[in-house]
Design brief:
Oligomer: single chain
Strand order of the largest sheet: 1-3-2-4-5-6-7
Shape: globular
Radius of gyration: 22 Å
Strand content: 5-15%
Structural class: alpha/beta
Helix content: 40-55%
Number of helices: 19
Length: about 450
């Protein structure tokens, strides 16, 4: 999501100050745990927080990366970022291997165990439910539930349209899905209680009329009559964005409008390529979507859902590895976004999306996702689970001495993981595929360490 909507990591580890804390109100208290990996996970957390606060709950938000010891979260974030930018083939290999394995390996588990005590200490008194919008957070919270250390229900809100097995954590009470397709994938991965409750998007993302479209184009300095394709690539601007921008321009069907997020180098390169309408970080993304005729994306995260809420048809094209490909397939299966696999089809599909029956069907399908009543959406479902409370008993926590030993072992494993991340990322920029995979070896399980971090929209 290459625009405002995520909150900056504001958690001071010394005091465990939450990113956002509302005054306790009539309905009770809920904690939302996300992670600043890309911007999609934080964007979903922000919108859930807004809705729950409007419903009368006190809501506290935390970033899981800030709850890892010794600032390790930032190191993991940077390693994932560098791999997506410099060695996307390695990310695809990692994503596929963890998908087949059905979860993370020992280093990933050790890393997440180091956050368990910190997450527990961060939960304020009176917390009645905890919601995760990030797979790693779901695993931490699920483990706490299984061990009997967390006595309130845990929910996972699935931010993506496709569900990697790492999203489904044992111990999580309820998984919330935007559509029947991700719900079915979550059940296939082992989730027991999965509820379809629709997607979330900031209410500013909504359809506009011709006058609003004209005003938006004027505000952004865009042509008044030309068909505009809004090209997005997540908050990091990853993927073959330059190639796609040139293809959009050269196909003759649209004028490309590119959002580069925080990737300033990409913006400079695009301007040097002669792409006229290039933006960095955009605060008024709803307005820019109002100006556009079609969205072209490569990750399938929250930005795609925001476009659907705006009545903007969506095309997936030259997707990034891993979740970008699986999200494109799931959105295409749902009829919400078309997946353009062949560059030869680009011009015809874009024309059909802008003026043809394909675009009309997609706009209808996209808006239908958001046609639920307030009592039938994800915030209402979270409130119902909060009211019901924990349904199962809880075992006593292990003795403090055993926990201390486990923390010591986990810290040692994390030190190895950070070293492996640094070495593996550096090698990914130097060696070819077979040599890198051979060099990483079989024992470190670096795949699981990095591969459990989808973007957000991964998403975009």
């Amino acid at each position: 999501m290459p625009h405002a909507g995520s909150t900056a990591p504001g958690l001071a580890l010394a005091g465990l100050i939450p990113q956002q804390r509302a005054t306790p109100h009539r309905a009770g208290r809920i904690v939302v745990v996300s992670a600043s990996v890309g911007a999609g996970h934080d964007g979903a957390a922000a919108e859930l927080t807004r809705r729950l606060t409007a419903d009368g709950f006190a809501v506290d938000r935390f970033d899981l990366l800030d709850l890892l010891p010794a600032h390790l979260g930032r190191a993991v974030q940077e390693g994932y970022h560098r791999m997506l930018v410099r060695a996307p083939w390695a990310y695809q290999r990692i994503y596929s291997s963890t998908e087949r394995a059905g979860g993370g390996g020992p280093i990933a588990r050790a890393l997440l165990r180091t956050a368990e005590d910190r997450v527990l200490r961060a939960l304020p008194p009176g917390t009645g439910a905890v919601v995760s919008t990030y797979p790693g957070a779901s695993r931490v919270l699920g483990n706490l539930r299984l061990k009997g250390r967390l006595a309130v229900p845990v929910l996972t809100y699935l931010t993506d349209f496709s569900v990697h097995p790492l999203w489904v954590a044992d111990g999580v009470d309820v998984h919330l899905a935007a559509h029947a397709i991700p719900a079915a994938q979550a059940r296939a991965a082992g989730a027991r209680d999965v509820r379809v409750c629709g997607p979330v998007a900031d209410p500013r993302f909504r359809p506009c009329d011709a006058e609003q479209r004209a005003l938006a184009r004027t505000a952004f300095g865009l042509p008044g009559r030309a068909p505009l394709a809004l090209l997005v690539a997540g908050s990091w601007g990853v993927g073959p964005v330059r190639e796609v921008a040139r293809e959009l321009r050269d196909c003759g069907a649209v004028v490309p409008v590119v959002v580069c997020g925080r990737n300033e180098a990409l913006a400079e390169q695009l301007r040097a390529d002669g792409i006229e309408h290039v933006h960095g970080w955009v605060d008024d993304m709803p307005g820019l979507m109002h100006a556009a005729d079609v969205l072209v994306q490569n990750a399938g995260g929250l930005t795609s859902l925001e476009a659907l809420a705006s009545g903007l048809p969506v095309a997936s094209y030259r997707c990034i590895p891993g979740h970008g490909l699986t999200n494109a397939a799931a959105l295409d299966e749902a009829g919400a976004a078309v997946w353009i696999r062949d560059p030869a089809d680009l011009e015809a599909v874009l024309c059909d999306l802008i003026d043809g029956p394909l675009g009309a069907r997609q706009r209808e399908a996209g808006l239908a996702l958001f046609a639920r009543t307030p009592d039938d959406g994800p915030a209402a479902e979270i409130a119902r689970v909060h009211r019901a409370g924990a349904q199962d008993g809880n075992r006593k926590p292990p003795p403090p001495r055993r926990r201390a030993v486990r923390r010591l072992a986990a810290t040692a494993a994390v030190a190895s993981a950070v070293w492996a991340c640094a070495v593996g990322t550096g090698m990914a920029t130097t060696y070819d595929g077979p040599r890198l995979m051979h060099s990483i070896g079989h024992g470190l399980d670096l795949d699981s360490f990095i591969g459990h971090r989808p973007q957000g929209g991964h998403h975009s």
